[in-house]
Amino acid sequence: MVTITHYIALSGVLFIIGLVGVLTRRNVIVVMMAIELMLNAGNLLFVAFARHLGDMTGHVFVFMVMAVAAAEAAVGLAIALSLFKNRDTVDLDEVNLMKW
Fold first, then answer.
1. How many alpha carbons fall within 13 Å on the CB side of residue 84?
2. Per the count of CB atoms within 10 A, which of 12, 31, 76, 79 is most buried?
């Protein structure tokens, strides 16, 4: 039987994989995918706790997180396309437009 502990462990593993992806990768597309993985780990926890507690609040939070993730993907892909168009690279080390 799958318990809430299993969901928490799986969510933690997914979040750590996403965090490592954000911290170690330099490709903007891979970084965005890692952020999506972290958001989905949070969604898994929201659904698991909502099911465990018998409350629908977690499902509402999941919809809000999915809306934020969709907006992040749209804006992030637009920035990545603009970056590639102007700099011919998607490497985050090459981007220094916002640095002081």
1. 10
2. 31
